Amino acid sequence: MDDATEETPARKRPPVQRVFETSDVDVARDFMNAAYGTSLRMRGSARRQLVRHARFDYGSFCLDDVTLSMETRYDAEPLGCLAVVEPRTGWVEHRWPDGGERVGPGEIAAISPPDRPFTALAHQLEFDSVVLGQPALERNATLPEGGRSESLRFTGMRPASPGLADRWRGAVAHVRDVLAVNPQAMSEPLVIGNMARALAESALAAFPNSGSAEPTSRDGSDATPGAVRRAVAFIEERADSDITLLDIARAARVSPHALRIAFARHHSRSPFGCVTGVRLDRAHFDLLQADGENGDATVSAVAAKWGFPKPSRFAALYRDVYGVGPHDTLSL
To answer: Which residues form the HTH araC/xylS-type domain (predicted)?
Structure first.
């Protein structure tokens, strides 16, 4: 994943779609080892049962759809990433040193702490999962400086509350909805970046972890108009790049907590409300410069380029700011 502090904007990275299906457990084991980047020892109750794995890989996160139509046991080395599963049918039980979870339909859980080896027993299991890479999680965790990779640990594999579980489901549903209605947008780096940020923030909020620095008394005194000016300047300079709240806070030379306080005190928008506004302005400029002969395709493409994957949402935001729809601007 590109470092957001580099001066070059994010590059397009077409998503990778893979669908694998086999009835041979040995073949399935080899595939799963490659897909999850770990050493996995898989044993099925029958030699020839369906194993299906469909994946959309966006670099910083993956969407998986998995079927294990048998009773399957496996042992795995640490995944090094957060894999959150939601079974549709069947159940799976994961065990790791000093803990474990059994998950069935309607429930959500992470497979195991990313840094722990684990064993699993799956029974006639079909599930959706989201795999979030450690870099995406660390980029959105408000860890103290100097303790980023060492300090981010997940201490609970279930959402901390039903409300946080719903927040996670909402973030995942949004990604899958965009994939269904506007798959072309999912190759745009700002769209992928926004979705990775939403998934990471939801995961960090939902699953107990060590990735949140506590507010300090200094945050209030740091929340100055100068911090907002530095943040806005950075946002305007880097609007075409995949930036996080931590990137903006570093540019403003304050903590993420102080940045939020500063914007609440001295700006009409939140930090990412400001990001959205600047990107909307850039989209407006592109539409003014565009050839309007192929209007639908142009509006959708410009919107996705600036991180707005849903044309209807983009049109509503655009009309609120400019008083006309994006197609009206395109036809000028």
So the answer is: 229-332
